[in-house]
Structures are given as structure tokens and as C-alpha cells.
Design goal:
Number of strands: 7
Shape: globular
Structural class: alpha/beta
Helix content: 25-40%
Number of helices: 9
Largest sheet: 7 strands, mixed
Order of helices and strands: HHHEHEHEEHHEHHEE
Distance between the termini: 39 Å
Radius of gyration: 16 Å
Length: 225
């Protein structure tokens, strides 16, 4: 009998990476994560991610795991009236980000990005997935399925971009290593085995035109379709 492929993450494992993002934590997220932790521990200033958005964002944009909506709020959009869609498994995240971005009237979809998902027929010019992959369970070959599920919604010539904290293949300070261990033990992250080579392998399997940049413990990726 042929070997079966390994089982994917359970529903509980999928939910664990987003469960921490309650309303109280989201009020602290920008100052704690995007400022102090990014800059001091991951050694990747949040300005790097903001520039990532400004280089790649299109007039019709889909954000997977939007967090507080900080980057969509802060970046320079190509249109005064961009069309924005937000996808997350956590309804609190969606509500908080949508409220922050209410001037854009974003469309909101409660979806699991590790499974194929619909956007009610919407097509977009760009997809952002900032600090998403390290929260997803299942190892890089499994979590990279998010690229397949996202690209079906992107028009030809569109962009997919994002960032992730890696477990191996990038430099970690002792403080970063301790925080990674703690976050993985709590199941907020699932990335101890995520490597730079593994991420590049998944990108190269799917895309012929991509760029991968390392800033501290963080890998930033940009894909042209």
C-alpha cells in the first residue's frame, strides 16, 4: 500500500496561532510588536515592512492576517479610493482592522488561509501577508499552500508580498532565540523549523519572478505574477 501523505494540522492547531489576538492584545500590538520587538529583537524595523507595502500594493488589495491594519493605514496608496479586502480566521482581528480602515470600507472575510477560500468573486492586484507564515502550523511545505490559495485571486501581473520570522538560516540574537522558543511553546508561533532555504524552495517551486531579502531574523519576499 502506498504511503499516505502526512496529515495536516488539526483545527485546534490552525486556530492557536491567531487565538492570542484578542481586543486587549491588539491595543498593544503596534507599540509592542511592530515597534519594540521588531526593532530590538527581530532587528527588522517596521519601516522595512511599510516600504514593502508601498512598493507592492495595488489599487485592489487583499491582506491575509491584517493584524491591526497598521500598514494599510500608514502606507501611500496608489488610489484615493483603493479597494481592500481583509482575510483572517479571527473575527476580532477583522473587526479591529476594519474599524481602523473604515474610510476605505474594506470587505471582510472570515477564512482559513490554509484551505482554498473564496472572496465572492473578487480579483485583486496585490496580496499582502505580513508576519503571517510564522503563525501558521504544519511546516513550511504545508503552510506555503497559502501562496497557492492566494494567487488564484490575483490578476496577471499582480504582486504577492510579505514577511515572516524564520527559525533557522537567519541570524538570531540570544534574546531572539529565547523569544522564539517561548512563542513556539505557547503555539503563538510555529516556526522553529522554518528556514530561509525552505522558504526559497517553496517560492521557487511556484514562481519564476521573486525576490527574497533578509533583515535580522525576518525574511521579506516579493513576487511578480
Amino acid at each position: 500500500m502506498a504511503d499516505r501523505p502526512p496529515a495536516g494540522p488539526t483545527r485546534e492547531e490552525v486556530a492557536a496561532g491567531t487565538a492570542v489576538y484578542d481586543r486587549e492584545w491588539l491595543t498593544q500590538y503596534d507599540s509592542v510588536v511592530l515597534d519594540r520587538i521588531c526593532r530590538r529583537i527581530w532587528r527588522c524595523d517596521s519601516a522595512e515592512m511599510l516600504r514593502l507595502y508601498e512598493r507592492n500594493i495595488g489599487e485592489r488589495h487583499l491582506d491575509l492576517g491584517p493584524g491591526t491594519g497598521y500598514y494599510l493605514d500608514a502606507c501611500r496608496h496608489r488610489s484615493a479610493r483603493p479597494r481592500i479586502a481583509l482575510v483572517d480566521l479571527n473575527p476580532t482581528v477583522l473587526a479591529e482592522a476594519a474599524e481602523r480602515l473604515r474610510r476605505f470600507r474594506p470587505a471582510v472575510f472570515e477564512r482559513d488561509v490554509l484551505s482554498p477560500f473564496t472572496l465572492d468573486g473578487e480579483q485583486v492586484d496585490s496580496v499582502g501577508m505580513n508576519f503571517l507564515l510564522h503563525c501558521l502550523p504544519g511546516g513550511m511545505p504545508h503552510k506555503a499552500r497559502v501562496f497557492d490559495h492566494a494567487r488564484v485571486h490575483v490578476v496577471p501581473g499582480g504582486r504577492i508580498f510579505g514577511s515572516t520570522v524564520l527559525g533557522t538560516g537567519v541570524p538570531h540574537s540570544s534574546e531572539a532565540s529565547r523569544l522564539l522558543e517561548s512563542l513556539n511553546e505557547k503555539r503563538t508561533f510555529d516556526n522553529l523549523d522554518d528556514s530561509l532555504d525552505g522558504l526559497e524552495a517553496e517560492l521557487s517551486r511556484r514562481f519564476s519572478d521573486y525576490e527574497l531579502t533578509v533583515r535580522g531574523s525576518v525574511a521579506l519576499f516579493e513576487v511578480s505574477l
